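Forgive a beginner's question, but might I ask you for the amino acids of a protein and the tokens describing how it folds?
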Amino acid sequence: MSRVIGDGAGWLFRLSYPYRLVSDVQVDSIFHISGALWEVGETVVLEVSRCRHLQLLGEGKRRRRARLVYFFPARPTRKEARAQSMAGRRNIPRYLYELEPLASIPAVYRNSAAMGTPNDLAVKVLARQPIGTSGFLNRKFAASPGRQHR
């Protein structure tokens, strides 16, 4: 019963707070969390087709659902990184990449710290930092201070 209520509340939250279109986003570098292992200096394409979840996008009064390539305009905090990195397979290494977009990003949507675009994004890898596995991040950051784990 609580699972249904929890899933319903998450659905309601996504419906109430869609990603909003942002205008005039100029960034020299972006940050992205991925399980892929890219080398510094390598050119890669962040593909929308590889994204699993549909998000609600708000464009004025009109709303639609689409897949987004997610990124951060600045280095994310641990909480922000955890919120974006828990989807996908568990217990695989995750990396925080600093990337340089090779072209301007045509449409950018924002909801909290994360941004996304419904278009493929060609980027150059500037830096890579390991942040652990998704299972490790869940155990480490899910606990409140002073709480004991079994």
The chain has one domain: 19-142. Strands lie at 19-22, 30-34, 43-46, 54-59, 62-67, 69-71, 93-101, 108-111, 114-117, 121-133. Residues 19-142 form a domain with the ADP-ribosylation fold fold (CATH 3.20.170). Helices lie at 2-16, 78-85, 134-142.
